[in-house]
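fyi for ur records
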Amino acid sequence: MSEATRGVHLATLAHEGRIWDAYLEFDDDPALTDYRARVRFSSPEADRFYRTTVIIIEQSYEEAVHHARGLEERQLQALLRSVLPDKEEE
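which gave:
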């Protein structure tokens, strides 16, 4: 599975003239007994994708997905803004 299609799709957002897709991306560490995930943002116009740190930790996959799908659009937009580089860094 390619990097672009990996993860659970959460939402599609508009930010500063670009369309962004938000995905829930799980850690692949078999030593972990819980489910840890971050949000990955990608856009066809961007040359790369951007990730949060692990922000969801739940006892089951289903709980993690349920928690992530409970994020409101404004919360996802705030997470996107927090991971994008400053204009001077682009």
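The two ends are 29 Å apart (CA to CA). thats all i got for now
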